[in-house]
Amino acid sequence: MNHPTPKPATLELSTIQPIAADQRHGRARDLFTIWFGSNIMLLTVVTGALAVTVFKLPFITALLALVAGNLIGGVFMALHSAQGPQLGVPQMVQTRGQFGSYGSLLVVALVVIMYLGFFASNLVLGGQSLHSQYALVSTNQGIVLVGLISVVATVFGYRLIHAYTRLMSYLSGAILLLCFIWIVAVHGLPADFLQRNAFNLPGFLGTLSVAALWQLAYAPYVSDYSRYMPADTGGRAAFWSSYWGCCLGSILPMALGVIVGLSVNGDIIAGLIELTGPIATLVVAVFSVGIAATNAMNLYCGTLSAITVGQTLVPRWSAGALSRTVTALVLFGISLALALLGQDDFMANYTNFILLLLYVLVPWTAINLVDYYLVAHGSYDVASFFRRDGGIYGTFNWTAVGCYVLGVLVQVPFMATELYTGVVAKAMGGADISWIVGLLVISPVYYLLSRRFRAPALLAGRNA
């Protein structure tokens, strides 16, 4: 079926309201470019380098762990994306269908905090990168510049963000390819490149987890960027476009991080600049702009989630473009303050905090996916999402809330961070498999309890 040609990027008027059929537009391939373009940035490169700098893996093993982790985590990310065309609402609004109107508030609030953290982390990295290559630009000025580009895209909303990442897919993709060619063919790799580091199981599992969690971090907002798609886009097309866009967009820059990490000692961004030599100015400029694209998505998600919290508490509030703009500016101000005031030791400390937040999102993703695909079969009463009493879903679904708490607790012995390492993780040499345990335990438990305790009408599903 032919769908309307996407209109030029204009100010988005909707926020968390259901997207009507006559407002739907776009094709599944748009989901590929938004996830491919948004992942090719400096933070992805730095994350890939962890495989060889922190986890001390050799080249081949590092690549295997990163590829496997992204491909596994990408399945969950893409399953969430496929929900957007069907329901036409943001992911955190849809969460009310599992947790109830008030039961979902804790998860939604955590998502706001998490994406503000990612936003601030990217600001610091972008500012420091610009300063390292352009001495006349201070770190603070770089932080503000990246932030301003991000907030403009957030204010204009969905269409501009899609257009922005579509452009960055081509631009950042070309620069990424140029980096590989220049470093390998022109600069050359160290003679002992393949002999550096040695395989270790904790490092392999740690790298696998980092890559999988990179993908899982998108789960709370991935359907925000597919909710405008026509309903007949189809779950399968939305799944594969999102899956390959996000996996390829993550694996390739992470592979660059591995090469840089094994080739130089010390700071990865400084190493990238050293290895790319004459083209470093172009590389840093494009990848820094790429950070702004991803940050626009982080701020957009945080804004929609904050509006979701407000609308839950004040159901009569129907937020529009002005409310989204004001909310985005407030959240931008908070993140900017965090980045400017805590830039010296912010990255290391907040990375640990982000990992802890990701642990509490793992049981949420298990509950959401099991409920959508196995319990409700994708059929929800969307009108109930916007009622204070939760409509047919109530204020609290104690089955979901209980499973969520259980999902956090069962991960604790398997966690491994600088802030806390569980007893099982210590016994495994610091390997972190908590997310695997969380998914494997909560998915069947929630399914069985839902089949036992949820009302027959909910099990049968309601037409959206």
Summarize the structure.
Helices cover 69% and strands 0% of the residues. With 464 residues, it is an all-alpha fold. It has one domain (23-356): Hydantoin permease.
Write a structural description.
This protein is mainly alpha-helical. The chain has a single domain (23-356), classed as Hydantoin permease (Orthogonal Bundle), CATH 1.10.4160.10. The protein is 69% helix and 0% strand. It has 19 helices and no strands. It has helices at 29-39, 42-53, 59-81, 84-87, 91-94, 96-99, 105-133, 139-156, 158-187, 201-216, 235-263, 268-276, 280-313, 321-341, 346-375, 398-411, 423-427, 434-453, 456-460. Helix 8 packs across helix 13 (280-313), helix 11 packs across helix 12 (268-276) and helix 15 runs parallel beside helix 18 (434-453). The radius of gyration is 21 Å and the shape is globular. The two termini are 22 Å apart.
Average pLDDT figure: 88
Please write the CATH class name: Mainly Alpha
CATH topology: Hydantoin permease
The portion of residues assigned to helices is: 55-70%
**What is the oligomer described by this structure?**
single chain
Largest sheet: none
